[in-house]
Structure formats: C-alpha cells, structure tokens
Write a structure and sequence with these properties.
201 residues, mainly alpha, 7 helices, 73% helix, 0% strand
C-alpha cells in the first residue's frame, strides 16, 4: 500500500505528471494487457515471461530515478503500488485460467487485499491516504512478483523446467505466507491509527 501521509508534500515532491519515473510506471501498467494477451491469447509463455521481466526492470528504475533525480511525486506514490497489485492480480488470474495455479490460491491472495481495503474509508476520514509500507510487505510483493514467472517457466518443455517449477512454487508459498503476515501487521497498525487519529473536516 502507498505510504501513510498527511497533506504535507514529501521531500523533493513535484506536481509534474510527466516525469521519467511516472512514465515508467505508465509503461508497466500498459504492459498488463500485453502480458495477458501473450499468456491467454497467443499462449506464448516465453514472451509473457519476457514482458514480466521488463516490468520488473521498470519497477526498479522508476524508484531509482525518482530518488536520484528528485522526482518523487504524489502520482508516483500512487501509481507504483497500483501497478504492483495490478500485476499480481493479472498474473494469478491469468495463470488460474490456464490451469497453472489453483483458484483457491487466487482467492487467498485476493481476500487479503479486500480485507485491507476495508480500512481505507476510515483512514481517509482521518486525513490519511493509506498505511505506511512495511518491509515485510515489500518482501512479500517481491516474492510473488518474481516467483510466478518461474512457475510459468516450469510448465515449459525444456531441461531446466522442473527446477524452475520447484523454485517458483517454493517462493510462491513463502510469498503467500509473508503476504498475509504483512496484512495482519497492516490491520493492527490501521486499527491503531483509526482509534487514535481524530476525524478531519
């Protein structure tokens, strides 16, 4: 989730939309339907993995350039977590449609985000946009975003495919545990803020 913030701008804040980090985030978002087309339409799994690899590179670069060139923006702080969640959702639904992931895992992961979304109205009523990003949450998101491509590669027909499959599923399981562990921390933290912060307006 995006960083908890009041209405004060963060350091090096910019109101510009067309910064390099934001353009990279837009490119990431535009890659989601491309990924789904290669996965579900053309069924070119190798190309679908390549799209995810490009997404991973742009994910790293947008944060790097935002800090290096002092182009941190409110829009960027919103776009980055939206892109992460959108990719996770697109990947798990796409892989489930293909029969690669069980739908039960999709429900488990989606239910986590739905649960956290219930905090948003109460937080906004107190002047906050969302909860601060926890390190465990970053680890969980990283594990899931980078494990699913290995699961997809594990379904291909080449010598190392079983190794990719085993590694990918191991990281998916750990990522799911971390994802929910972080959610419990977010819920506790959110309830703490809601109980103590006064309503605004």
């Amino acid at each position: 989730m995006a960083e908890l913030t009041d209405d004060r701008p963060p350091r090096f804040d910019t109101t510009r939309v067309w910064t390099v980090p934001n353009v990279l985030s837009f490119i990431r978002l535009a890659g989601i339907p491309v990924f789904l087309w290669f996965l579900l339409g053309a069924k070119l799994d190798g190309v679908a993995v390549a799209v995810l690899a490009v997404s991973g590179v742009t994910d790293f670069l947008d944060g790097y350039f935002a800090r290096k060139w002092r182009q941190v923006s409110r829009l960027g702080q919103v776009l980055d977590p939206i892109a992460d969640r959108s990719y996770i959702l697109a990947i798990i639904i796409g892989l489930a449609v293909r029969g690669i992931l069980p739908w039960a895992l999709v429900i488990v992961l989606v239910a986590r985000d739905v649960m956290l979304a219930t905090l948003i109205p109460a937080l906004r009523a107190r002047g906050y946009s969302s909860l601060p990003v926890h390190f465990l949450g970053k680890i969980a998101t990283f594990c899931l975003l980078y494990a699913f491509p290995f699961v997809l590669l594990g379904g291909l027909s080449f010598g190392a495919a079983p190794v990719f499959a085993v590694f990918g599923w191991a990281v998916v399981l750990w990522g799911t545990v971390f994802y929910w562990w972080a959610a419990i921390l977010y819920m506790y933290q959110g309830i703490w803020f809601i109980r103590r912060a006064p309503l605004v307006g």
